[in-house]
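Hey, can you fold this one?
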Amino acid sequence: MQSLIVKAVTGSFFGNCADLRLLLWLRVVAIIGQTIALTVSMTMLDIKLPYATLAFGIALLAALNAFTWYFLNRATSAKLDRVPYLDQRAFYYQIHADLAVLTFLLYFSGGPQNPFHDMYLLPLTAAAVALPWTYVWRVVLASMAAYSFVTLHYIPLDLEASHVQELLNYGHWVNHMLLAALIAYFVVRISADLRSRDHELEEAHAKELRNGCAVAIGSVAAGAAHELGSPLSTIHVLLSELRSEHANDPELKASLDLMSGRLDECKKILGSLRTFVHSLNQCNKAIPVDVLIDEVARRFRNIRPGISLTCTLNGSDPIPSVIPDLAFQQAIINLLNNAGDVSPNSITLDADWTELALTVRVCDHHGPGISDELAAELGKILFTTKPPEEGTGLGLFLTNVTMNRLGGRLRLFNQETGGVCAELVLPFTATCTGMPKT
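Sure. Predicted structure:
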């Protein structure tokens, strides 16, 4: 949660790279425009300017752009976590380089007489978008100093020729249009970034609330499991005595045997909870995926013997192995229970795997289906389509929380042949916290 909020508020390394890449593109436009203006002035307008000096300034800026672009592409292609020369300080120094070159060009091309004298606003706007306020104020001071310098100290233009004055008027118009468009773009981008980060914060807050709810439910479940131990032991003793007393009554003995078997299953479920708590602190032995799915199917058939379940396994060889996370197994059983409630005569459990991920689909074939709006909300909140006395939506909610914890996802969708399919996609990761492991 904390890391997500920090990323949403401050941005990541790749966010800094995106800002820097945008600055480089803007500089490419500026270099092309400066080159065109210099060429036109020299070949068509015959304006007296130090062309070699101005060309050197443009070439210097182009060399800096090419150098930065090279290292930026290397860093992003290698997916490096951090590169010292591509952080916020790099963006700050790049802005200062733009200010320096702009000052150099304006000094030799008329200073305030140059129609592009107001282009200092562009690097200042870029800094305000991408940098913290401490850097921004330094850029403001640097731009004010540079603007004041070229206003007071510059090599004037020869304004005696009428065509030069007409050119300057046209240049002022171009400069105004360009600045208006670019500043509007930056303002729109700021608004979009703020909305995006607000959305990320809302999602992080909602995720934290769901996790907190899951923790509370887990605490209650652990307490209930602990309290159930004593009455279950008492029932086990009473059943043993009844079976001994009525050993000669076949019908009653069969019923007592069934009750005893279901009681043993309850005790195994409570024992699995203790095993799960123990597994949080150490790695369990990995087992093949097909063995895990077969075990889940066996457990469900023991819990709901009246449900018709068909299990299908498909995948590439060699079969990957996973840590038998009990929460993940319970997530599948929760989906099987939901499917069995609406379609007891026909439900399917299909598992497909590749080298990268495990996909499990639980489908009912005679259920009423579900709307797209409801499918998007189920599992995120405690909501159910069942009557209050039959369900609370807790199983689907816990399944969704478990998948989020394991880095997977839950998706619900209608089948063309009828019924609903719940799909779990879990990527394989080499961890020791109950998550899948190749």
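Strands lie at 287-288, 309-315, 321-322, 347-353, 357-364, 409-414, 420-427. Let me know if you want another pass with a different chain boundary.
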